[in-house]
Amino acid sequence: MEFEHVIYEKKEGVVWLTLNRPGVLNALNRAMWRELNQAIDLADKDDEVRVVIITGAGRAFCAGDDINDLATIKDAFDAKAYFKEIAGAVRTG
Length: 93
What we know:
This protein is an alpha+beta fold. It is built from 3 helices and 3 strands, in the order ββαβαα.
C-alpha cells in the first residue's frame, strides 16, 4: 500500500513508518493521521511484523498537530470524526 504522507517500509520483520511532510516539520493533518492509522493497521495484520518504528523525514520527528488543519474543523460532528482518526493511530494493543 502506498501513502502520500507516510512512507511504509518493511525490512526483516520491522516496519518503518516515516512521517513525510518535512516542509511543515511533519505536522500531522487529518490526511496524515488517516494514513498513519491505515499503515499501523497494515503492519498489525502482517504476521511477519515484530515491531513498528515511527520516524520523521527531514530535521524534525513531528511538530504535533497541524494548527491550520485544526482550524478547518467546522462543528462538533467534524471534530469527533477528526479525533477518531487520531484515536485510531494512538491505540494500544
